[in-house]
Design brief:
Layout lengths: L2 H8 L30 H5 L15 E7 L5 E7 L1 H5 L3 E6 L26 E2 L5 E7 L2 H10 L1 E6 L22 E6 L2 H7 L2 E9 L11 E7 L2 E6 L4 H12 L6 E4 L15 H13 L3 E4 L2 H4 L9 E9 L5 E12 L13 H4 L5 E9 L13 H19 L3 H7 L4 E2 L4 E2 L5 H12 L11 E3 L2 E13 L5 E8 L4 E4 L9 H13 L6 E4 L16 H26 L13 E4 L2 E4 L8 E2 H7 L4 E8 L14 E13 L4 E12 L6 H20 L30 E6 L23 H13 L10 H4 L3
Parallel strand pairs: 1-12, 10-11, 14-15, 21-22, 28-29
Antiparallel strand pairs: 1-5, 2-4, 2-6, 3-5, 7-15, 8-13, 9-10, 9-12, 13-14, 16-17, 18-19, 19-27, 20-21, 20-26, 23-24, 24-25, 27-28
The chain binds dioxothiomolybdenum(VI) ion.
């Protein structure tokens, strides 16, 4: 799914449009832009936050899937006789006896176009071939390993290279041109300075702390699913289709999520299997994916192979830019990793082509992973830009500054807010870039060789439809709710901030309820769109609740405001008062509610997607950033370390600096992992991810984390609504890996075009 397809998807539900773009930008306030700890922090640090697999119920039993040990072929038999004789075993499901699981409709995507256990065909190693349910987890695990499956294996293709023969660009079955302007072939051919290189990125597996889990509890024909989901509403919609149930019979609960990175954006087959097993047994069922299962059954970032051709004038004008890429996908889904996400608009050039092709592999389906498309795409584009700067003998910051544009040249629209130039300039200043000696290996710190690299970042800015509810309560507190969820990024906290900003009620008196599909439908936590999406609906709900409160103030006998015109009143600092007098002259709002015998003043709010704004389609909306990296290379012991990163982010107004800084710093660490460590390695014989555990799939530790300086431009995006805030979950990862490999080149003279950087790559120096 490309970002623009995602935007269409999150705007597809009908909600009366609130033309947020016509709202004036909110003035600065004490609460907006403050540095506030997450309000759910104490629950998490004391272990009382409830994650999906923390839910337990009387008579609950445990499900464990059995996975295929071949990558392609047919199941000949599933022999569960021995498993069924083991203690505590209640049920073994396979394709011969599984209750109906239906296909999901388009859009909300369950992982497979094919429902789980639906037939005897195997498309990838690890595909579910059976499900065992037993009284205890240990019994279910033992029985799962006692299920004997025999196969007729056929030839599988799990090749690492994506050099498969393909029809020409644009031909039937060949790569598609997804963006073009001018004549990039001719312009490249005639360009005096050229870069023409192939870059590749490996499969990466999302490894959130919390593993996928489902607890399914039926009451009659209604089911509650406790999930670890980045989108409770979408999960509900998909499960209604998959289980063949009316939506009102399903409730999805995801109160706390130990992150997801995109892996939990869309529901996976285990959720459906858990639900049908629980229905059949009429007992609650818990199914937790083991970490190794997450390497085969809940998505990954696919491999990419990207050819970049840049043609330039000797003074650094870009004459041609071609970005032709392929990514791997599964046999059961066509998932595009949109590597050309940022290419069409990042730099000014008259001649451009981006093309996109898919290569099928016998591996489970890929899915979005933090900054899908843009992140591997920018590895290629920004690496090529660094190579171009070297070919031109130009400073890579200067080269990029000279190619900046205030118009999105892919569609002719102005950017709603683009400050890439400032990102580069401020970053260079903070990093000390002026002291850089461009000669390879020329900068030293004792025995260490220092390498300095830079790259730009971009990720889309979007806003979908949302609803929310706010209640001002007679005990002086407020409650805000929306069926969105906090995947760890701080959504609970910013919702409380918005309510506090509208009402003056202190943060610690505001309860925020999320992660429950029975609340008014809110956004998915995906594509860095949740913040911009949910805020206008929360604001609308708070304002509606205030109106109800003020209505009570003027209509309740005994109220000091009885009989007044509503327009003359305001709620400020949690006090109802005459608008042009000080809040101190008024009364605490809860006194009005008590007088009116109201438990609370309820407000419902809704807001339309970006596309419903009057001028919503007239601008190009993106976040930008610049990453400056220092690496230390110790040639004596072949040790490479990322020592320092300065990241400057143009992500609209920052609502809360603490979680925002934390998002970007975390993304930088993830970028270190992408550049130096992360790679899912599939056994070339059978497609088994052989490093499917935390010992062998390497992610950065604290010792690998550089010193990170996060700087936000904090310039409101006027097209994102009253608060001018964009989501910032993904932008921080964009550009980190190519800045690191540029720094590695600067230190060692070795250009690594295939991630991750391996020590062997550097031993040539
Ligand atoms: Mo993000 S990959 O849209 O969760």
């Amino acid at each position: 799914m490309t970002f623009s397809e995602y935007l269409d998807f999150i705007q597809s539900n009908a909600v009366a449009p609130a033309s947020a773009s016509s709202e004036p930008l909110a003035p600065p306030s004490a609460i907006i832009g403050a540095s506030l700890p997450r309000i759910d922090g104490p629950l998490k640090t004391t272990g009382s936050a409830m994650y999906a697999s923390d839910y337990n119920f009387p008579r609950m039993v445990y499900a464990v899937p059995v996975r295929s040990t071949i990558a392609a072929g047919k199941i000949l038999s599933v022999d569960s006789a021995a498993a069924k004789k083991l203690p505590g075993v209640l049920l073994v499901l396979d394709h011969s006896n599984v209750p109906a699981i239906f296909k999901s409709g388009a859009g909300g995507r369950i992982s497979e176009s094919r429902p789980p256990l639906s037939d005897d065909t195997v498309y990838y190693w690890g595909q579910y071939v059976a499900l065992v349910v037993a009284e205890t987890f240990e019994q279910a695990n033992a029985a799962a390993s006692a299920v004997r499956v025999s196969y007729a294996a056929s030839k599988a293709n799990v090749a690492t290279s994506l050099d498969d023969p393909m029809p020409a660009i644009g031909a039937e079955g060949g790569p598609r041109v997804v963006s073009h302007r001018g004549d990039s072939d001719a312009a490249f051919a005639g360009a005096p300075v050229k870069v023409d290189q192939v870059y590749s990125t490996p499969a990466e597996t999302h490894n959130p702390m919390e593993m996928h889990a489902t607890v399914a509890v039926w009451k009659g024909d209604k089911v509650t699913l406790y999930e670890s989901s980045q989108g409770v509403v979408n999960h509900l919609n998909v499960m209604a289709q998959v289980l063949g149930l009316p939506k009102e019979n399903i409730q999805i609960i995801s109160r706390f999520i130990g992150s997801g990175f995109g892996g939990k954006l869309f529901p996976w087959p285990h959720s459906a299997l858990c639900a049908v097993a629980a229905r059949q047994l009429n007992r609650p069922v818990k199914l937790t994916l083991a970490r190794n299962m997450m390497f085969s059954n809940s998505g990954h970032r696919p491999r990419t192979q990207q050819r970049l051709r840049l043609g330039a004038t000797p003074d650094g004008k870009l004459l041609a830019l071609q970005h032709d890429y392929r990514n791997s996908t599964s046999l059961v889904d066509n998932i595009t990793e949109n590597c050309g996400e940022a290419t069409p608009f990042l730099y000014s050039t008259a001649n451009l082509r981006v093309s996109s092709g898919l290569v099928k592999r016998n591996i489970g389906s890929p899915t979005p992973m933090r900054g899908p498309g843009a992140v591997p795409g920018l590895f290629a584009l920004e690496s090529a830009m660094d190579e171009l700067a070297i070919a031109l003998k130009m400073d890579p910051v200067q080269l990029r500054l000279g190619l900046d544009t205030i118009t999105d040249e892919s569609n002719g629209k102005p950017f709603s807010s683009r400050h890439l130039k400032e990102c580069l300039q401020i970053g260079a200043e903070k990093f000390g870039w002026a002291k850089r000696n461009p000669a390879v290996g020329s900068m030293r710190d004792g025995d260490l060789i220092l390498g300095w690299g830079v790259a730009c970042a971009s990720w889309g800015a979007g806003r979908g439809v949302s609803q929310a509810a706010v209640t001002l309560r007679d005990d002086g507190t407020a409650r805000a709710g929306s069926a969105t969820q906090d995947i760890g990024t701080g959504t609970y906290t910013i919702v409380a901030q918005i309510v506090s900003d509208r009402t003056g009620i202190p943060i610690d008196k505001i309860d925020v309820v999320l992660g429950d599909s029975s609340l008014p439908p809110g956004p998915m936590s995906g594509g860095s769109t949740a913040t911009a999406t949910v805020i206008p609906s929360v604001m609308d709900a708070a304002d509606a609740a205030i109106k109800v409160l003020l209505g009570a103030a003027i209509s309740t006998k005994g109220s000091p405001f009885f009989g007044k015109d509503l327009a003359t009143l305001a709620l400020t600092a949690a006090h109802v008062h005459i608008r042009d007098q000080s809040p101190d002259s008024g009364v605490p709002f809860e006194q009005i509610l008590k007088l009116a015998k109201l438990a609370g003043a309820d407000g419902e709010g809704k807001s339309g997607g970006y596309g419903s704004d009057t001028d919503g389609r007239s601008f190009s909306n993106h976040s930008f950033g610049a990453q400056f990296v220092e690496v230390e290379w110790d040639p004596g012991i072949a040790h490479l370390r990322v020592s320092r990163v300065v990241t400057v982010i143009d992500g609209g107004r920052i609502l809360n600096k603490l979680p925002a800084t934390n998002q970007i710093a975390g993304a930088v660490v993830m970028g270190v992992g992408m550049a130096l460590f992360e790679e899912t390695i599939y056994d070339p014989r059978n497609g088994h991810a052989i490093n499917d555990n935390f010992a062998d799939y390497i992610v950065p530790t604290s010792a690998d984390a550089p010193q990170i300086d996060v700087h936000f431009l904090d310039i409101p995006d006027p097209k994102m609504g009253h608060y001018g805030a964009r989501g910032i979950g993904e932008i921080g990862l964009a550009g980190v890996a190519p800045a690191i490999t540029a720094a590695v080149y600067h230190a060692t003279g070795v250009r690594v075009r295939s991630l991750p950087v391996r020590i062997e790559d550097l031993l040539t120096t």
